[in-house]
Amino acid sequence: MKTFNVDISKSLNKKFKSKLLAKFIKAIDEYRLIQAGDKICVAMSGGKDSLLLAMLFEEYKRHYRNDVEIVYLMMNSGFKDEFLKNHFSLLDRIGIEQITIDSKVYEIANQMNPQAPCFLCARMRRGFLYSKAKELGCNKLALGHHFDDVIETTLMNIFYAGSFKTMLPKVKSRNYEGLELIRPMYLIKEHDVKKFMDYHQLIVSHKGCLFQERDNETKRQEMKELISKLRKVYKNIDINIFRSAENVNMDAILGYIKDEEKYSYLDFYDEDEQ
């Protein structure tokens, strides 16, 4: 059994506590993400975010909550050998044991849609993780989405989907009864994740996916660049984007969707005069 890295544990409780561990715990408490007796499957992608998520869970379990069970799961969907070698080396340094299950998701997605396999691949990977988490007896699946992912998703929906919809801190699975997706890094900013990884010289390989080399100019990257530019003009722009999803004024919107049914403000307009 591996032992969690002492230096990493110390830095999470001191140098990076306010930016990482405290926000991790705040999200768990504020959004009621974890309860006693939970068995949580932490999805490991090989990236910096899921690695930090695993480290935060190790610290949380050891010092804050020992009445939950944590398992770390990676779906090897066809990662490059050098990517996996680097990832396993990082796990050894950190002191985390991971379950690795091979699949052919990359191969299947590319065969079915060779021009644009990413959307299909993402859906297949999510389904695989839900299925395996259920097999492992877990009732929670934790993903490493952070604050920046949330606000980028909000803007992507506005700009490209014509809807106001954000990424929620927890969602109940529709296809896997009793399983809930949670995002405990919901309040953690990406630049603080990078600072932590750099501080400990945890260098993550960015070329695990075979499709990444085709086109790195994604819509999400456009949002990152836009927010970065806006932040130079107004430093709290990211916080205001985030807060907009919790301060929706239902008296001042044209319409909304609830339980897949669409409503217009005109449906209730004349009721105010009665």
UniProtKB/TrEMBL annotation:
Name any one Pfam family assigned in the record.
ATP_bind_3
> Which keywords are on file for this protein?
Transferase
Q: Does the keyword Cytoplasm apply?
A: no
Provide the tRNA(Ile)-lysidine/2-thiocytidine synthase N-terminal domain boundaries: 39-202
Gene3D superfamilies for the chain: HUPs
Q: Which InterPro entries match?
A: Rossmann-like_a/b/a_fold, TilS/TtcA_N, tRNA_thiolation_TtcA_Ctu1
Q: Where is the signal peptide?
A: none
Q: Which GO terms describe its molecular function?
A: transferase activity
Q: Please give the biological process terms from Gene Ontology that the record holds.
A: tRNA processing
The protein's name: tRNA(Ile)-lysidine/2-thiocytidine synthase N-terminal domain-containing protein
Q: What species was this sequence derived from?
A: Hujiaoplasma nucleasis
